[in-house]
Structure formats: C-alpha cells, structure tokens
Prior knowledge:
Elements: E1 4-7, E2 26-30, E3 33-34, H1 43-66, E4 91-92, E5 98-100, E6 103-108, E7 113-117, E8 122-126, E9 130-139, H2 142-145, E10 151-161, E11 166-171, E12 177-179, E13 189-198, E14 206-211, E15 219-221, E16 226-236, H3 248-255, E17 259-264, E18 270-276, E19 281-287, E20 298-301, E21 306-309, E22 316-318, E23 320-326, E24 333-339, E25 350-355, E26 361-366
Parallel strand pairs: 1-2
Antiparallel strand pairs: 2-3, 4-7, 5-6, 6-9, 7-8, 8-16, 9-14, 9-15, 10-13, 10-16, 11-12, 11-14, 17-26, 18-19, 18-25, 19-24, 20-26, 21-22, 21-25, 23-24
Amino acid sequence: xxxxxxxxxxxxxxxxxxxxxxxxxxxxxxxxxxxxxxxxxxxxxxxxxxxxxxxxxxxxxxxxxxxxxxxxxxxxxxxxxxxxxxxxxxxxxxxxxxxxxxxxxxxxxxxxxxxxxxxxxxxxxxxxxxxxxxxxxxxxxxxxxxxxxxxxxxxxxxxxxxxxxxxxxxxxxxxxxxxxxxxxxxxxxxxxxxxxxxxxxxxxxxxxxxxxxxxxxxxxxxxxxxxxxxxxxxxxxxxxxxxxxxxxxxxxxxxxxxxxxxxxxxxxxxxxxxxxxxxxxxxxxxxxxxxxxxxxxxxxxxxxxxxxxxxxxxxxxxxxxxxxxxxxxxxxxxxxxxxxxxxxxxxxxxxxxxxxxxxxxxxxxxxxx
Length: 369
C-alpha cells in the first residue's frame, strides 16, 4: 500500500482529497514515528486522528453516493457511448417525439426544427422566428427518483447555444420548476448547473435542457437559434463531480427498458412462428427484452419488408400491422397482429415470420414515459 507522508506542526491541519474520490491513504508521522504509536497524552495528535477518522467516513459516504452506475439518474446522458435506436438524426423534429433514446422534443411555435446527433452531443436547431420553446427533456421513472427524496441534488450539463435564455430546468410537479444559470448565448460550450432539494411529495422529476423562461414560459426565438448539449448528470450534494460515462452495453441495457428493436439483416431471416387467426391476419408472440417497463404503447414495422412462409407454398407479404392484441404489465411477450390483405392465409396454420428483402428488417416497440 502506498502512503503520502506529511510533516505536521502544532496547530496545523491537513485535508487529503482526490479529484476522482478514490481511496486515499495517508500516514501521519511525529518525529519519524507512526502516529498510532504516539503518546495518547498528546492532545493535538488525538485531535488530528479524530479529524482523519471523520474525513475518512465522509470520503466513503461520498464514494457510495456519487460514483458508479447508481450515481447518475439520467439514462443516455449523451456522450460517445450514447444509444440511438430511433435513428432520427437529420430529420425534422415534432413536439412530443422521441428524437433519441430517452430524450423527447418540447417545441412550441418553432417549426421547422431539425434534430442532429454528433459524435458526443445532440442538437436542435430551428429556422422559425417566434415566441416559443425549443428544448429536449427526459422524464425520470419513479423507481429511480424515489431514492432522491428530500435530498440535495445537483444537475449539470455541457451546453452550447446562441440564445441567452438557454438553461436547464428540473420539473418536480405539474407546474413546479427549478432553473440553472443561463447560457451567455455566445455560441461556446458552457457548464450549466443547478442545485435544489427534491421533495418527497413531488409526483415527478423531469430534466429539460433548452430555450425557455425559468418557469418554462415562452421566450423570443429567432431563425438560426439552437441548443446543443452533452454529459448530463445528477449527483447528490451541491458539487459538480467529474463526468463518468457508462460502458455502451450498460447504457443500451438501461435504454432497452423503454424502447427496443428486433432486427434481422438477411433475406429470409427467421424471427419466429405466427398462427393465422383468419385469412387476412396472423398472431405473433414477440419476445420482449428482460426488464421491459410494461405493455408497449407504440409498435412499428416496415410494411412489405416481412413475409409469411409456409412449406410448399409461395411466400406471402406482410403488408401491415394492426397492433398489440394481448400483453400484460410485466409480461415477457406482446402478441402482435400481422396483416395480409390478399386474404391468402389458411386459418389455424403456422407460418414462418421472416424477413423478405435483403436489407435490414426491424420491429420497434416502445414504452417511454
């Protein structure tokens, strides 16, 4: 074990710290002798040992609360390991639409607005001039924010904007907001941060990053205005700690509680079996990922990229999807209805459900907040 040696004079104090809050080892010497062997009658030395014990406890507490996966309540906090199952970069955003995993556009009177994903950032930019709102928001699930009840929380992000009303808002109720400092609007990257105490009586916790007033009121926005951010994090206490990214696999697993895609990239790629319940429709039980949040409220697939196949018969295109017929909260399956408008299915027959063309095939389900 490595030590750092200090020379202590009467009345002196020592604070030992490390930027990353890792383990700290210190050895205190009196005339070349380890402090633990010093005479107990030395009151100064006893006080020093008491201070060290107290600060060691504080360091351990800080480690438990502010490091590792448990530290950041934001899922997909935007860095080089960000997850993007939606694939909306370069497209026109719409109010309420999820642009990327866990981040939803909040747009008022600012259309058209374009969403862009960079290497380690996301961005909204508009060509509209209006009194409005331009923001991206993440709602934190109650199972994650309940642990924050009655605690002091600091929220921070690296933000770039050309509008001086760009800020972070924490929404803790239907109309309760706490605000960070505002961006200067100079177009450079700035650290925005805020500290507040989250009340256990609040019924929600959502983080908004964008252009609005401190109470989410509408403000002046002109053509060319934008917001761009990365490294969003929550920490306990009033200090912004060094940003800690998760591994991509960890981030993906967290995101797949809310949105998930099933993909096969080869022609005739087999997904599973579907049973025809009529001449125009078949039921397919889609296996959901472990820990999916509940009954999917959105399901999509590209028509005519999939097909029904029955041995000895021509394959039949799947040209639409009715939606989810049966699923229960916490279920590992969702039964979806696949359509063939040609009325060519044999009721009761089992069909292969597989990819039809050589390009990628995707079924996408979501249960976002």
